[in-house]
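Could you please review the protein record set out just below?
***
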Amino acid sequence: QVQLVESGGGLVQPGGSLRLSCVASGLSLTDYAAGWYRQAPGKQRQWIADITNLGIPLYGDSMKGRFTISKDNAKNTFYLQMDNLKPEDTAVYYCKSGGFWGQGTQVTVSS
């Protein structure tokens, strides 16, 4: 049974940073690409970044620069480092791998 469990969301002030984690079980990140998405209220789910099974990162055009995807194969975990956060980054963030989704973690950027 595949499970993806996110953590690391929360409330942060504008300009702050957060690192999201997604622990995968039931599949290996050495076999599957992994990615992060987000969905703000009233908006469609938006792709942020992928990391291939070989560790090559890919980013959405508007996501380059402030978001960094990485992974630790030994921990079967992948991450999203988010820097210089803005209020418009407020959303539920989801991880995805092997066609499966995590449950989502809320990120709120507000002063």
Summary: The mean pLDDT is 97.
